[in-house]
Specification:
This protein is of the alpha/beta class. It has a 20-stranded mixed β-sheet that branches. It has five helices and 20 strands. The termini are far apart.
Amino acid sequence: MNRRLILGIIWCVIALALSGLFIKGITSYTTDAGEFWKEVGAFSLLENKNDYMRNGMKSFSSKEEIFDESVKEIEVDVKSESIEVIKSDEKKIRIEFVDETEKYTEAKIIGNKLSVIQTARIPGFFFVLRTPKVIIHIPAEKYDKINLQASSGTIKADGLKTDNLTVKASSGTIKVEDTVAEKAEISVSSGTINADEVSFGSINVTSSSGAIKLQGKILQADVKCTSGTIKVENEVKFEKDSSFTASSGTITLELTPSNEYFFETNATSGSIKNEMDSNRFGNVAIKAKTTSGSIRIRKN
């Protein structure tokens, strides 16, 4: 038999098999193809074409939920949505579910805790047309604990005050602004961490891949970055031992001068430049270590 004919038959069989798998995947998600495309947003796109023409691919719809109860803890745990928790002048908690995220997310009060959990998988095609996001407006008061977690997407915390702050993302960007916490823990596997105008008693920051930037008033810090840069601008003196470690990347520390600092620096492959005095009898150890990269320490 002709070789080209044989190859043609083989490719036809492969194409039919893949088509069958695709159709099976769609029908396994929902038995009605129309409902499937409605879920992923194709019908909504047509029904709201004027909104899309005005806004392009930006968010165009949202639904709100309001809670009268007073809470002391806030917990948000989503897989594929962005999170924003923002201080407001309102007396009540107001939650915005942007781009129909209310279909996949549940918000409720449990005791004195607000819990916002993603309860269902968001279809893959959803992200082509939408920007799933949950925005939580909270009264301007101090909370015992705030815990924000997302597998992928942006997490933003703005104007918060809490005893314990935890912000974790597997992949995405973390932004913390104008926030006060006695103890803070921020981590991302792949992405950037940016904390501006913060006030932390102590902070623990980890990043496997991505840049870390901290700016504000920090009394103690433990910062680790596997691959990426570390930059810290501290407006007050460190009161306890603090360490900054990077496997591959530059460490830049802009610090308030103190005669209590004792610096321990090590760069296996790279230069070290310290513009500040080191007191070997100092009570506060500032440790900076990088395997591949430079270390820069200067007065702010």
